[in-house]
Amino acid sequence: MENTNLMKRIFRIFTLGFASTILLMACSKSDSPEKDTEAPTIEFTKPLLDGTTNYSKGVEMGLNATFKDNKELSKCVVTIEYLDQSIESASLKGFGSPWAPAENNESYEIDLSGETETVNANLFDEAIEMNCLGGAYQLKFVVTDKEGNELITNVDVTIQ
User: Fold this and answer.
1) In the chain, where does DSSP find H-type helix?
2) pLDDT tens string for the chain (160 positions)?
3) Percentages of the chain per state (helix, strand, coil), in multiples of 5
4) Is 122 strand, coil or helix?
């Protein structure tokens, strides 16, 4: 009789353990989130993507854009490069060097969150210097989401 009770206990423990294992395996498969592989996007109001945006010396370089991601935005890093490197253009304008953020390879970081965020900002937190070189510049926007997906967008602008 003891052997029969012992066998019943072992059978119950085995059955319970087996059922628990099956249940845990089923739950772990359904709870695993899908990997985010979609890059974020930017919709610009200013500057315009067509390269026709002009900024005047003495005022700030405004940005108005909407950032979107299918899951969660993280940040946008903006850099600026002076494109008009010819000596003739520099001597014609009579000024010596590009705007400081371009000359010093500065970056401007915007923290983002959520799936959609509209940003109105003054890039590089300073007005464009009156004595900097005017001409063609290029803004580079690197937008990342929480998963590390990245969008790089270049926008040509003019400082006059």
Assistant:
1) 2-31, 87-93, 100-103
2) 566 666 666 666 656 555 555 555 555 554 557 888 999 999 999 999 999 999 999 999 999 999 999 999 999 999 999 997 654 444 444 457 999 999 999 999 999 999 999 999 999 999 999 999 999 999 999 999 999 999 999 999 999 9
3) 25, 40, 30
4) strand
